[in-house]
Amino acid sequence: MSRWQAVFKHGRALSTRSTNKRAEQDNSGSMGAVVGGVSAAALGYKLYSEKDKYLVQAKGAEVTYEQKSFDNRMRQYNTPDMVFNYFASLQMVDKTGIKTTMMSPLDFFGAITPDCSIHPGAGSGVYEEISDEKLKTLRLDKSPVEGSILNEIGKNGLISYADYCFLLSLLSTPIRFVDTAFNLFDLTGDEKISAKEFAYVSTKMSHKLGGFGTYTDVDQSAILASNSGLLNYLFGKDRSKCISRDEFRMLHKNLLDEIIQLEFNEFDKDKTGSISEGDFCHFLLNRTRIPPSQKAKMLKRVDNIWPKKARGISFPSFKNFFLVLASGTELERGLFFLDVENIGVDLEEFRKVASWVSHNELSPHTAEVVFVLLDDAGEGRIHKESVGPVLFDWRKPRGYDKSSIHVQLGQLEI
User: Fold this and answer.
1) DSSP β-ladder status, 90-93 and 99-102
2) Per DSSP, what are the bridge partners of residue 301?
3) What is the pLDDT confidence band of residue 309, given thresholds at 50, 70 and 90?
4) Which residues contact 45 (CB under 8 A, 6 or more apart)?
5) Three-state DSSP state, 231
6) What is the pTM of this model?
7) pLDDT tens digits along 194-210
8) Cα 216 → chain centroid
9) Would you give the DSSP letter of residue 359?
């Protein structure tokens, strides 16, 4: 049950009880009608005054399968602006009454994580309105990760649509192309990104209905004056700070590390530092287009070798493979390079490609689990046809493919 469903359900129950009470009192004459009206007003006021209580309860409630399925479809098949509006839960109202839809840090996590259970979408048009004054005392849901960069952004304000597009693009950028992304923002080539440069590029790259963002001096002034937590965090509230290439790399690393930790925690409920091989494979197969019957056979192969929680997959191993998956076409290009004969790649060749892509050595155990999952023929080699629906398409349910950096050299595009 989502936040708005909980409030609606409770309100409907109160309204029904109020209506029944008035019906019983109709025979008592006009005084009964007055009492019924007062009771309805009192109950309505009670619901309004306790709305925060029910919102908090709904946030902690278990997310239903139907809710997760609908959220998943929103992430995968809609444009970034529609995804943002669906998962955002707040609206800033300025002194003139103009409303701007904004995200909390965990709204952002929910918008990019399939089957997210800690912060589901509230739905388009379901927003809590807040003023500049209320923002200072607003208590946002916090990320449980120690040293959270999302929490730091939340301390400085909220996430705008342009911020969302930037953070999504940053997450979807392979490690080896982070410097390329920095160069796109460093318009003056002075090895620093100013607030004005960031505002210009992040607006132009943000998908909007009918095309991409326009940009004028009015747009720039509005962006720089906004309550963007990301802008405040990176450039200070006076927008006088700049970020260097090393700081940009660190931003990419810290953000990616936190998202990986949060996704790992979705499976590691007991905080043991490792998850079962079966859970790891569920993570890989989540939102793939593989038929359920075939998916069940793949998972059964893994369970037969590693029943329940055998050796397990540690967080460092999970992180290394997440980086491989997040690299998208880099993994695809590496595997195609090693398999020009179209005979598939063996275990060591796969580990070699994964190391190229993630800049970290993939553990033999993790590679073996992936091979058992994907090697339908049991021949010790995996082929493009079996890898594609799982590893190559992993980015799509998260929206990474819509916001990633694209490099073209002649006829080669990556």
Assistant:
1) antiparallel
2) none
3) low
4) none
5) helix
6) 0.77
7) 999 998 888 777 765 54
8) 30
9) S
